[in-house]
Amino acid sequence: MDVNRNEDGTAVTGVGGSHDKRFAEGENENTLTNRQGHLITDNQNVRTVGNRGPTTLENYHFLEKISHFDRERIPERVVHARGAGAHGYFEAYGKVGDEPVSKYTRAKLFQEAGKRTPVFVRFSTVIGGAHSPETLRDPRGFAVKFYTEDGNWDLVGNNLKIFFIRDPLKFPDMVHAFKPDPVTNLPDPERMFDFVSQSPEATHMITFLFSPWGIPANYRQMQGSGVNTYKWVNQDGEAVLVKYHWEPKQGIRNLLQKEANQIQATNYNHATQDLYKAIEQGNYPEWELLVQIMSDGEHPELDYDPLDPTKLWDPKQFPFLPVGKMVLNKNPENDFAEVEQAAFGTGVLVDGLDFSDDKLLQGRTFSYSDTQRYRVGTNYLQLPINAPKKHVATNQRGGQMEYRVDMAPGQNPHVDYEPSTLGGLTEAPKRGKDHEPYYEARLVRQKIERANDFAQAGETYRAFDEVEKNELIANLVDALKICQPQIQEKMVEYFTKADPEYGRRVREGLEKAKQDMQAHTSSAASDQAMEQAEKMGHKSDGY
Q: Where is the domain boundary, 382, 399, 425?
């Protein structure tokens, strides 16, 4: 590295790190130092008054080491805490289906056939904590960070193509209901169904979640989706609505509940292990990115609102069009530095990509980036995993853990604002016409007009094969049987509105479960299991 030195030869510029070749006397590449660059000659013993005496306050190396250790964990994500990740690339086809992609979007990463863009992908579960089993029935996160020439683009989604709710105001309540009981800290499906029974729009997602689609077999063989509706914008400022879908070239595989139970009995980390080993062995997983395109508008001919994230777009009307493929070919070098500190946001878009008026998307766009500022820190975008792979020059200054100033070469260091005539940063020229949607409506608090909460849930149920239907009914009955009667009745009502057979089978399953349980309750069953666990323990003498 190019390092300026003073007359005595002392290095005065450049950031020291593990690849720095400036060594102290007796030091080489493998010599242990602290973060001040001090050589550590004794990493086994603290400094004490005699070999048995008290330690002294000037144990600088110990204090720095233990203080850092005490802070090695950052707040875990409220949702999507359990995750795995990998690096790779996205290769564009240059077309959307058979048409030039430039017809719909001016985003550079899509324009040229064969153009490769580096990516980092984080897969995750949603509700469980950082060390929860990867076999739990739960949506899976599928977040992709594209390091494009125009800066980062984050495509943040799930494995399932829809969501539980359509209004972001309900999101904190939904997560609270799905999380463990705040008193007992135990998972409680009654809390979840209590919320869902008052949120009919969740019926479609529940139908997917309690089928085998609720437990993907691994990360390599699961789909991904942006879930929300976005927009593409072309050179003329014309926009279309778009939905993103990742389809695994390894095929799709889900687990039955009994299969998940068998895996969980011996391995809490099977999906992370599967992804790591596949890449390590050169079996690089691939996904094709497909989009559905719809003209920008309200589309009154549809029986649902195209901005509603609880709905699927009919692929017969709006076909899946391939635009590129993604290959993951490199494992993280350090899980914490890359996977845990990776920060995504639905507002991270590049030129040619835009937001729709999807309410949930608008809410997510604030929440996702805000949680990273809390969780990782004000300057989280300066971390290597989050930083764009291009020039950065901003007037943002200070904040916790700022370790460089985003100053341009030749920029007047006294000018940290814009506009300025004194040598500050200047705005970039526009590359195309702005997309300017027009609005004429009152400011209201109302749900969308075409809610139609049950039709697609019924269509999804009827599309399932018999194995999927049987698994869905069994899983719903197993979860609902401990719920209060009013919750059961409301859920059966929703399922019946979706499909009469669907509701009937759940109702009959609950009636049979009630007969089987007789006087026993789920808590009694839990107590029995606890007693059995106590009997299986091995008694030992104290030591």
A: 382
d(CA 224, CA 209): 15
Single out the residue of 347, 139, 327 nearest to residue 225, CA to CA.
Answer: 139
Per DSSP, the residues of 390-446 read S---------TT--S--PPTT--TT--SSS-SSS---PPPPSSPPP-----------
Q: What is the pLDDT of residue 522?
A: 52
* 332 plus 465 within the same structural domain: no
Antiparallel, parallel or unpaired: β 286-295 and 239-248: antiparallel
Q: Which of 382, 404, 427 is the last residue of a domain?
A: 382
What is the Cα–Cα distance from 461 to 443, expressed in whole angstroms? 37
Q: What is the pTM (predicted TM-score) of this model?
A: 0.91
DSSP 470-500: HHHHHHHHHHHTTS-HHHHHHHHHHHHHH-H
Give the CATH number for residue 49: 4.10.91.20
Residues 479 and 366 in one domain: no
Coil, strand or helix: which one is 233? strand
Gyration radius from the chain CA atoms: 27
**Same domain for 283 and 141:** yes
**What are the pLDDT digits (tens) for 360-379?**
999 998 898 899 999 999 99
pLDDT score recorded for residue 286: 98
Q: Residue 113 and residue 102: Cα distance in Å, rounded? A: 12
- In this structure, the answer to whether residues 244 and 318 fall within a common structural domain is yes
Helix axes 189-196, 485-498, angle to 10 degrees: 50
Residue 244 is assigned to a ligand binding site: no
Do 259 and 336 lie in a common domain? yes
Per-residue pLDDT band at 257 (split at 50, 70, 90): very high
Q: How many domains does the chain have?
A: 3
Q: What is the mean pLDDT of residues 473-496?
A: 98
pLDDT (tens digit, 9 = 90+) per residue, 134-173? 999 999 999 999 999 999 999 999 999 999 999 999 999 9
**What tokens does 210 get?**
């309690």
The pLDDT of residue 15 is 72
Whether the Cβ atoms of residue 48 and residue 78 lie closer than 8 Å to each other: no
Nearest to 461 by CA among 213, 131, 108: 213
Q: Average pLDDT, stretch 456-461?
A: 98
Q: Which residues are catalytic?
A: 80, 158
Same domain, 49 and 117: no
Q: What is the mean pLDDT of residues 268-291?
A: 98
Spacing of C-alpha 533 from chain mean position: 35
Domain that holds residue 147: 83-165+216-382
